[in-house]
Specification:
- By secondary structure, the chain is of the alpha/beta class.
- It folds into two domains: 156 residues, NAD(P)-binding Rossmann-like Domain (Rossmann fold, 3-Layer(aba) Sandwich); 122 residues, N-(1-d-carboxylethyl)-l-norvaline Dehydrogenase, domain 2 (Orthogonal Bundle).
- The radius of gyration is 20 Å and the shape is elongated.
- The chain starts with a strand and ends in a 10-residue tail after the last helix.
């Protein structure tokens, strides 16, 4: 099995390593020559045997648009492009139509797993035709976690469905992180009573209904930086949460928890907040997202 991989950043580079460990031949391209296997996208296309599969793992929006346009110029009819970035689902319809003019197939993949994916595998939500998903299944199997396929992979529906599912997944993620963070702030406020805050969260990891991987990452973050004194409580958002709320409004679906978590992030950009330090630390733990060092850290 052979695949081209465009984008070798935090996740893309780890995905290349995981795929190669599964004996899949990966030809990677990145604008950073230090990590790229080839010099140009044209070289990447030339290094692959047709019909080709090319996975795009670059930031959503204009950068993805540019890569799709460039690939349309170097690939051939029958090739398959998979967008594994965090693109908005509506962009998938445009990219599918753009590539279809050249006879190139298209699929989308929502990918969760962050910087831990190389070790643990990636949760995959994919959209596309049955034929294209079946064609790329060895790649999906190599990337997903070990165990039953249905516990780490889902063919959600046609093109756009994968990114739609990932969008909602990230909206839920926003609300979960906010819940943990607010709990952290209240516990921290009663340091006169709660004498070991990190141990309290650690004790929740087994046997409680709030246990989760996010909770484990919060414990890890607290062990590395008790009190989160080294980072500011400034939390960015990458788009999926906003898109989830937009879809909720469009379809009259009430989402008070997720919408509140989005607005809480906006608050974090205006004033310091212990809860937002916790959210910032969580995003750094699971996704390697940048944080703002605190002035006193």
């Amino acid at each position: 099995m052979q695949i081209g991989l465009v984008g070798l950043g935090r996740m893309g580079n780890n995905m290349r390593a995981r795929l190669r460990k599964a004996d899949i031949d990966v030809v990677g391209y990145d604008t950073n020559p230090d990590v790229s296997d080839v010099a140009t996208l044209a070289d990447l296309a030339a290094a692959l045997t047709g019909p080709r599969i090319v996975w795009v793992m670059v930031p959503a929006g204009k950068i993805t648009d540019a890569v799709i346009t460039d690939l349309a110029g170097v690939l051939s009819p029958g090739d398959l492009v998979i967008d594994g970035g965090n693109s908005k689902f509506s962009d998938d319809f445009l990219h599918e139509a753009q590539l279809a003019e050249k006879g190139i197939e298209y699929a989308d993949a929502g990918v969760s797993g962050g910087v831990w994916g190389q070790q643990n595998g990636y949760g995959l939500m994919v959209g596309g035709s049955d034929e294209n998903i079946a064609r790329a299944m060895p790649i999906f199997d190599a990337l997903r976690p070990e165990g039953p396929r249905e516990e780490g992979f889902v063919h959600v529906g046609p093109v756009g469905a994968g990114h739609y599912a990932k969008m909602v997944h990230n909206g839920i993620e926003y609300a979960l992180m906010q819940g943990y963070a607010e709990g952290y702030e209240l516990l921290a406020a009663r340091s006169d009573l709660v004498k070991d805050l990190p141990a309290t969260f650690k004790a929740w990891q087994r046997g409680t209904v709030v246990r989760s991987w996010l909770l484990e990452l919060l414990v890890l973050a607290l062990e590395q930086d008790p009190g989160f004194e080294k980072i500011e409580g400034y939390v960015a958002d990458s788009g999926e949460g906003r898109w989830t709320i937009e879809e909720a409004i469009e379809h009259a679906v009430p989402m008070p928890a997720i919408s509140a978590s989005i607005f809480a992030r906006f608050v974090s950009r205006q004033e310091e907040s212990p809860a937002m330090r916790a959210v910032a630390a969580l995003r750094q733990q699971f996704g390697g997202h940048a944080v703002k060092p605190s002035a006193d850290g």
